[in-house]
Structures are given as structure tokens and as C-alpha cells.
Q: What sequence folds into this?
């Protein structure tokens, strides 16, 4: 079919977490412009299996940009060259016939490679466990709308909650900092009444955990915001910084 | 006080130290520039200004020590952050796509800072040491002539101009970055802060650059 492409792929291959990895070159032929990036990799893997070669391991799940599982750095950019989409939403029509495409895993100390292009993102779960929640209420069922929330607050909170925890912010940051992720998870509660009782404890605990896990510090390059598939704003980072200072001043917690 | 030091050692705390010392240095540059502009008033005015500062020497010394401490905090903290941030990504990307998602000013803070530091050492050595520690012209309060002498060298003047361009990179990012770190980023004011940072940077760089250029072309080593 006319318009189909032949491509050269340079893919990071690594047997397991402890193995030494390296790039391997693959050629894929007759790729449809309408196929997605992950479908292109599926085609490659089918061919590899037929040849008896170990397929390339990569993460994927919903393939509609909401689960946050896919995680490829394509030609140096997390989730590829387009803004505000995940890798699974990237289509081959954005590449040209004969292109050489470099595919790498997320690179961060806190995201060790498990195999090929798959990294361990448990660090994000550990940060959430440190305080990224609202403790469960007890007692009777409250009336709906008993607590009034302004449209502005709910929009700020839901914009922050749009974070799918994919880790592109860490992958994009030159310091492998998780500030955008953590700030989104802090902000989604910080602007709502339900989040107030634990507001300051939450930010202190989550920042502490983030630091322990070996993420870098933020140097305000704003690469995270530019690469975030959900367009999470760096204003969330400013809010988290603000809350962190206020917490240090206001709280009587000397343990953190 | 354990909580306090733990806070300063946290990632956000270290950012805060960078930002607060950075803001102090931004303010210092304004004072420094105002002082420098008296050079355009001619040798007599400038020499008198420096001579007057001599009369309040103890106070000047105290301020110098505070300023030195601010520099030390800013620099040591930067080195520490740089090392830690390198460690946070042990394996680098084969293809670096950072030019597509961030500006050059923010990505080169450590490089621009390092060159500014080298410049600072040379700057202190040739001017501050000469003014304070027994340069023959300083003894006779002819400070202006020291500058004429220094800027007669095209290499020295060139070094100033190169360092100032890099200082511009550093200031432009540092200005708005400090506000972001303090958490003063909102939809209404942040674009304004970015513009203010640009205006500040341009004024500082043109102001400081005017001096070596003026001396090189108008005095050219003729004391």
C-alpha cells in the first residue's frame, strides 16, 4: 500500500534489572501511517517472535491515554514529539519514511529498568502511601452538597487530579525530579475542603518520601509541564512549595 | 532545631536557600550598579564616593562579610544540588531532547554560574584587592585610575563582556525561578514577573557592560 513506511528502530534492550543494557537496531517494513506507535512495536514483536527472538518488553494497558502505563522516551522526548498525548496516542503519521527512531526507557535512579523499556515506578506508589490520600471518615452518611465548593476550586483540583502518574515529568526533568507528580497529588486535596485537615502533614510527609526515594531537586526548567501528557501546570509546584513552607512555620510537628 | 535543618536539607528547602540567597544577590547587583554609574561623573566624583566609603569602613566590612556568606551559601548549595541531581539520573539519555521542552537559560544555570564564579574571582583580585590592599593608586585615592588601567586591556574588557552575557542568562532564569520557588506563581502575576525579570536583566547587563566599554574606548589606558 502506498504511504506505508519503512523505519529503523534503535531500541534499548536490557535482560533484567542487573544486566548491562545497550541499543539494538531493528528494521520494520510496511508500517501503516494510521497505526499507533505501540501497534508498530506490536508488529515488530510479532516478527521477532516468528524469528524466535525475544520480543521487546514495553509497558501498555488502556491504549487510550488514561492509565499512565505506557512510558517510552522517543527521540529524547517522553511520550514522543507531540504535546499533551501519551505514547499510545502517538500515531505513525507523525514520522517519515526512512526515519531512525531512538526508543529509550524512563531514566531515573528512582525508576530502575526492570527489562528493556519497562521501568519500576513503585516509587510513585510509595509517595502516595506517605500521604497522598484523605483519611476515611466515620459516622453517618453526610448529605450531598453539605460542603460548598467553588467552581474555581473544583476545577483546580480536577486539573491536578488529571495526573495519570505516568512519570513523564521525571523522565523529562534534567534532574529526574518528581515535583510535578507530587505537587499534582498534593494539590488535588489542598484546594478542597476535604483535604484541609491533613493539608500540611500531607505535604511534609510526601516531600520527605520523595527525597528519600532518590528523585532529584527541581530547578524550574519547566520541562515537566512541557512534556506532561495531561498538561499539569507548574503552578501546582508553586502551591506545594508554599504549603511546605507554611507547614514548616505553622505545624508543631518536629518529627518531619 | 532538628526540624529546621531537616527542612533546609529537603529538596524544597535547598531550592529555598538558592532562591533567597539569589534574591539577595539580585538586590546587591542593583546597589553595585548604582555605585558604578558614578564612574560616568568623572574621576573626581568617583574617587570621592570611594573615599567616603572609607570613612565608614567598619560598616562596609560587615556588609562585605554578609555578602560573602550569601555567595558561599548560594555557591555551595548549588554544587551540592548539582551533584545530587546528577546522581538522580545515573544513566543519561542517548538522545537529549531538552531543547524541545525547556529554555537554554534554565538548563545552563550551573555552567553560567561556574563561569560567573571564575569571573568573580578575577574581578575581586583586580579591583577589590587593589582598592583595599595597598595599590599605590588606592593609597592616593586615585581609584578611577585603577579602572582606567584595568580596562586598557582588550582581553580583560572582553572577559567582562563575556561574563556579563552569561550573568544575563543566570539572572533571567534566576529572577522568575525565585518567585516560583517561593510559591508566588499565579495566572495573573507570573507573566508580569517574567517580564520584570527580563527588564531587570537587560538593565543590569547594559548598565554593567557600559563601564568596561566606556573605559576601553574613551580612556584606552591613558591615565
A:
Amino acid at each position: 500500500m502506498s504511504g506505508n513506511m519503512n523505519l529503523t528502530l534503535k531500541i534499548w534492550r536490557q535482560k533484567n534489572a542487573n544486566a548491562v543494557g545497550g541499543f539494538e537496531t531493528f528494521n520494520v517494513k510496511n508500517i501503516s501511517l494510521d497505526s499507533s506507535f505501540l501497534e508498530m512495536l506490536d508488529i515488530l514483536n510479532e516478527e521477532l517472535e516468528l524469528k524466535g527472538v525475544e520480543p521487546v518488553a514495553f509497558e501498555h494497558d488502556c491504549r487510550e491515554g488514561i492509565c499512565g502505563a505506557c512510558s517510552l522516551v522517543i527521540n529524547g522526548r517522553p511520550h514522543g514529539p507531540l504535546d499533551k498525548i501519551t505514547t499510545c496516542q502517538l500515531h505513525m503519521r507523525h514520522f517519515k519514511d526512512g526515519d531512525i527512531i531512538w526508543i529509550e526507557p524512563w531514566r531515573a535512579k528512582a525508576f530502575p529498568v526492570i527489562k528493556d523499556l519497562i521501568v519500576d515506578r513503585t516509587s510513585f506508589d510509595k509517595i502516595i502511601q506517605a500521604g497522598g490520600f484523605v483519611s476515611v471518615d466515620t459516622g453517618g452518611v453526610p448529605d450531598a452538597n453539605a460542603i460548598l465548593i467553588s467552581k474555581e476550586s473544583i476545577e483546580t483540583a480536577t486539573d491536578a487530579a488529571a495526573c495519570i502518574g505516568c512519570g513523564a515529568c521525571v523522565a523529562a526533568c534534567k534532574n529526574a525530579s518528581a515535583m510535578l507528580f507530587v505537587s499534582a497529588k498534593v494539590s488535588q486535596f489542598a484546594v478542597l475542603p476535604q483535604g484541609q485537615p491533613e493539608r500540611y502533614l500531607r505535604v511534609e510527609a510526601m516531600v520527605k518520601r520523595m527525597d528519600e526515594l532518590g528523585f532529584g531537586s527541581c530547578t524550574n526548567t519547566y520541562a515537566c509541564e512541557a512534556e506532561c501528557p495531561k498538561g499539569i501546570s507548574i503552578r501546582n509546584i508553586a502551591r506545594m512549595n508554599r504549603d511546605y513552607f507554611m507547614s514548616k512555620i505553622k505545624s508543631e510537628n518536629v518529627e518531619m | 532545631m532538628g526540624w529546621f535543618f531537616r527542612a533546609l536539607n529537603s529538596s524544597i528547602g535547598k531550592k529555598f536557600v538558592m532562591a533567597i540567597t539569589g534574591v539577595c544577590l539580585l538586590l546587591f547587583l542593583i546597589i553595585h550598579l548604582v555605585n558604578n554609574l558614578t564612574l560616568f561623573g568623572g574621576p573626581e566624583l568617583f574617587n570621592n564616593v570611594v573615599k567616603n566609603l572609607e570613612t565608614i569602613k567598619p560598616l562596609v566590612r560587615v556588609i562585605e562579610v554578609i555578602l560573602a556568606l550569601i555567595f558561599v551559601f548560594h555557591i555551595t548549595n548549588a554544587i551540592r544540588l548539582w551533584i545530587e541531581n546528577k546522581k538522580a539520573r545515573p544513566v543519561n539519555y542517548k538522545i537529549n531532547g531538552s531543547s524541545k521542552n525547556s529554555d537554554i537559560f534554565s538548563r545552563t544555570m550551573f555552567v553560567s554560574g561556574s563561569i560567573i564564579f571564575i569571573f568573580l574571582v578575577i574581578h575581586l583580585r583586580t579591583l577589590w584587592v587593589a582598592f583595599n590592599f595597598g595599590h599605590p593608586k588606592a593609597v592616593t585615592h586615585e581609584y578611577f585610575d585603577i579602572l582606567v588601567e584595568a580596562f586598557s586591556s582588550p582581553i580583560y574588557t572582553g572577559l567582562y563582556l563575556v561574563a556579563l552575557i552569561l550573568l544575563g542568562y543566570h539572572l533571567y532564569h534566576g529572577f522568575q525561578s525565585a518567585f516560583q520557588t517561593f510559591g508566588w506563581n499565579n495566572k495573573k502575576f507570573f507573566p508580569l514577573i517574567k517580564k520584570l525579570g527580563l527588564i531587570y536583566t537587560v538593565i543590569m547587563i547594559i548598565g554593567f557592560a557600559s563601564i568596561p566599554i566606556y573605559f576601553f574606548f574613551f580612556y584606552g589606558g591613558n591615565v
Summary: Chain B has one domain: 2-90+109-218. The interface with chain A takes residues 2-4, 6-7, 10-12, 14-16, 81, 84-85, 87-98, 100-103, 106-107, 109, 173, 176-177, 180-187, 190 of chain B (CB under 8 Å). The mean pLDDT of chain B is 94.
